[in-house]
Specification:
homodimer; 598 residues; alpha+beta; Butyryl-Coa Dehydrogenase, subunit A, domain 1; Butyryl-CoA Dehydrogenase, subunit A, domain 2; 18 helices; globular; AcylCo_DH/oxidase_C (chains A, B)
Chain lengths: 598, 598
């Protein structure tokens, strides 16, 4: 059976030593009082919940799955899931970074980020119930009317109710412009909604007395395509003006998907049969309102893979130290044993370090992004807010696609460390692989992310936002370029930062002549950008570690950071050399293939 | 629900047009009469069995799995599996390439190869029952006594009985030297065997009246480690001298593993409680005897991933043509539809072509290797036999590891084409991913394969065998180097062939100083070698296609071959640039990481 230890020290390193978050908070009136002790105490408690409550339900949740009663349309979640959620609500975790106006604790998003990293390590399927709910909270908080906020936000904040996002339909996933669900205005200002949704995560369950569905639908006079989509809030039980529950709304779970992974989460088919809802935001602007939720969800999906990468690494490391098999190529290491622990083998170490590096790079990037969200939300200086918002928009597709693809590589590598035992369910490793696999797909496939990055976020403004990130890299290079000890960490990102400009210009020029060139290069481009960003994160972490060591700190933690960074630059980062070649190989070999793809 | 069409034309292209197998067979007395019509007719029938009988049981077999009756130790396989096996035996498929002396049809191994490619596409879990059995046949054929052959081979040939290979124990997989199962000599010349085995594929089932277990065990006086292992044949039911069944031997299935994939195959825990067996081959030389089976199995595992890559490709291609979603970046393609079929998107084509190229490269390599096996087995010229044997030994770890890793990439890419639907069991795509995942692990993990390649097969004889393969590449380069139309296919392999020599020398030199350098480079090295081999296969296929086109053949099949080869060299082959860098990055960043891996 797998184990999980919350990586508190690693989080604290990134929070306090690398990004010095409390210094940043001091500039934000809402968070000026949040000090390191508070952060650490909260994360410690969060870790106890994740490891002690959510994690023990991970394998059993996978084995049991969810069941639908076709008569009542009610869903039973795996044993213990409901009780764990009650504990979560009781502990106030749902409210952690919610608005104090609605009963939230108002703590910075970075703390929610760390909470969720641990919850995802512990149990991705379970964590999606509160996770989706928090997305619904954010969309209503940003776009709801005062009445909607009053009615729904306190209950979503406390966790008394949960929320969902109902986007996908059988014939449309990526292309929401095709959606058919209809909303008919009623005399009382509400809307009667009819349609079929699929793939609704946490779409039905037995945790709470009500579920607040956010539903995309079309008004009768709506323009075709994505400009004719509106957002509605459609509760499972109608809500009276005093907040009490009214009659059952005809929005029913009619089926649950049989999936590769995240079995503990109810992926619902939802039939909406004239359910009554109210409009969120402006008519036909539903997609924009939903994107508040979607952007948060994309960062959240990266965080899911960070969680799985970390827990997979921890277990593979433990196994590699424990399992004895063969002797070291460079001579017997464990003379007292029949064979050496497999951690002596170079390729086993490579698999472990791959996961470790991808976890540490992801953790730094996720916290970096969430701190930007805190600034975008709470900083008094408008320019800081705007810059932060732009930077996080640039980084969002990288977080989503790069971290989830890396999660695929890492969880598979960790499973491989176990040999045949990795394939056996009881060891828990193959579940990490299966659960991670959806992260590369939902909330916009990783191909969609790459087009968002290259097409919209980079070429869409002539590389202006990318240059802002490049400036950060440039500052670090300028700052540390003369430091001989930093050369091994600085040179690669200086090189790639330089290459990136030429590379982007070249792809942009080609794309101007033929847009399929953008589509052909985008996935490779995103991974190159991902390595530039991770390279920057590792250089920042190495900088801190080197300073501590220079100051006489002998904690091996800092040596570990250097070793992981060295490994990253030597064995993972060089992927960019192939990626820039294959991106430059262009679209012709893909598009001139009518015979091959006949 | 997925579909499967046997790729007969593709097989025939490789068999008849690329490798001209019937010309080769003419030189082998045993196969001199095997003509193209015979081959094609047999493969057509084989395809009907695979697509019509085995394939419809693939998803249901995954859903049902196998069940063990703990009282009787009998295993029930999924519905239809037993009947399909009866049809297989009835059709004579088990006997296809078996020795005529024992009732086999004596056809070349390449035909068995193509049969098994199709069976693996259709149903890997089911195919492992006859597949393992064939391995047992081969080991007994090579090392059994006359009596053992007389007793077991006719029944294994016909398929009336099946066989297994019982190697792994709970504490030893890769490191068979640690195995503990004991064999005590009895007065009558038999052995009483006691021990526990795990991970025994097709280890128990309800297909046949008897199961012939080949078991590795230690004699009482055996030396420690891998030099003290002997091989025994231990039937489920003892066999009387007249071939009739005697009493039940105490070799019992005591548990079935719960696995990520291949649910339809019974992965058995086997308790051997004083079962009676006879020695196969010489005492303490069991590992060598078992390696007959293992080498065949390794080629067979590559073939499993070839099968899965092909069927995953076929279904992803069909879906990509059918599913409409978004418009092409370069302008609307399907004006009569609400959106374009997703095959217009460059990255969808890239995912499809990745699978197609990896299937076609693998098919060529598998047939190339099996033809070498036919030569090694049936060619009258001893030098040809020896050269063929050496070359297939070199290529075996590449087939096993490169093709299964590519299968992982390809099945995941094909699943990704389906978006969210790829994650849903009913579509069948995620099963291909799960089933393929074991191929990277069993019969020696892919890391073990890489050490076998670099350490034993390449550096072990100072690159002599590698040079033999290099000679084939050199011949093709010399032959086509002046052909302008071949340049795009020849230049990359000429370049890599050249690099490979330096690369090998460099790693060899480092490994001489520090053996961990070999362990650190091996996995990257194997993939580089894999691309050299695949590059050679694609150049050979392109050569044939170009000649046909030059001769006026307008069949788009040949354009398709060129397009796939172009895609391969532009988008997949360039991986070597990163791999040679990361291999050269050495072992230090892996081994000097005690703090990071504390």
């Amino acid at each position: 059976m797998p184990t999980y230890t919350p990586p508190l020290r690693d989080m604290q390193f990134v929070l306090h030593e690398v990004f010095k978050v409390t210094d940043e908070f001091k500039a934000m009136p809402a968070h000026a009082e949040v000090d390191a002790d508070t952060i650490n105490a909260v994360l410690e408690e969060a870790g106890k919940f994740a490891a002690g409550v959510a994690f023990p339900l991970n394998i059993s949740g996978d084995t049991e799955g969810c069941t639908l009663n076709q008569q009542t349309h009610e869903v039973t979640t795996p044993k213990g899931f409901k009780e764990a959620y009650a504990q979560y609500v009781e502990g106030g975790w749902a409210a952690l970074s919610c608005d104090t106006a609605y009963g939230g604790q108002g703590l910075p998003f970075v703390m929610n980020q760390c909470l969720y990293e641990m919850l995802n390590s512990a149990n991705q399927a379970w964590t999606m119930y509160p996770g989706l709910s928090h997305g619904a909270y954010e969309a209503l908080h940003a776009h709801g009317t005062d009445e909607q906020k009053k009615l729904y936000l306190p209950k979503l904040t406390s966790g008394e109710w949960t929320g969902t996002m109902c986007l996908t339909e059988p014939h449309c996933g990526t292309d929401l412009g095709l959606l058919r669900t209809k909303a008919e205005p009623q005399a009382d200002g509400t809307y009667k909604i009819t349609g079929n949704k699929i793939f609704i995560s946490a779409g039905e369950h037995n945790f709470t007395s009500n579920i607040v569905h956010l539903v995309l639908a079309r008004l009768p006079d709506a323009p075709k395509g994505s400009k004719g989509i509106s957002l509605f809030v459609v509760p499972k039980f109608k809500v009276n003006a005093d907040g009490s529950l009214g009659e059952r709304n005809p929005i029913y779970c009619t089926g649950l998907e049989h999936k590769m992974g995240i079995h503990g989460n109810a992926t619902a088919q939802i039939a909406i049969d004239g359910a009554i809802g109210t409009l969120v935001g402006e008519p036909n602007k539903g997609l924009a309102a939903m994107f508040v939720m979607m952007n948060a969800a994309r960062l959240g999906v990266g965080n899911q893979s960070l969680g799985l990468t970390e827990v997979a690494f921890q277990n593979a490391l433990a196994y590699a130290k424990d399992r004895i098999q063969m002797r070291s190529l460079s001579g017997t290491k464990a003379k007292d044993k029949e064979a050496d622990p497999i951690i002596v083998h170079p390729d086993v170490r490579k698999m472990l370090l791959t996961a470790k590096a991808y976890a540490e790079g992801a953790r730094a990037l996720q916290i970096f992004c969430t701190l930007l969200l805190d600034k975008a939300h709470s900083h008094p200086d408008e320019k800081v807010r705007k810059d932060s918002d732009e930077l996080v928009a640039l980084l969002t597709p990288i977080v989503k696609a790069f971290i989830t693809d890396n999660g695929h590589i890492a969880t598979n590598a960790c499973m491989q460390v176990f040999g045949g035992h990795g394939f056996i369910k009881e060891w828990g490793m193959e579940q990490f692989v299966r659960d991670n696999r959806i992260n590369m797909i939902y909330e916009g496939t990783n191909t969609v992310q790459s087009l968002d990055l290259l097409g919209r976020k980079v070429l869409g403004n002539n590389g202006a936002t990318l240059k802002k990130f490049g400036k950060l890299v440039g500052q670090l290079v300028a700052e540390e370029g003369v430091n001989e000890k930093m050369a091994e960490f600085i040179n690669p990102i200086a090189y790639l930062g330089d290459q990136m400009t030429k590379f982007t210009t070249e792809i942009g020029f080609r794309g101007f002549q033929n847009p399929d060139e953008v589509g052909a290069a985008a996935v490779d481009y995103l991974r190159v950008a991902g390595h530039l960003v991770f390279g920057y994160m590792f250089a920042r972490m190495a900088q801190v570690a080197l300073r501590e060591i220079a100051a006489g700190n002998t904690d091996p933690f800092y040596q570990a950071k250097l070793q992981t960074a060295r490994f990253y630059f030597a064995k993972l980062f060089p992927e960019v050399h192939t990626l820039m070649r294959t991106a430059r190989a262009g679209s012709k070999v893909l598009m001139d293939t009518d015979a091959a793809l006949a």
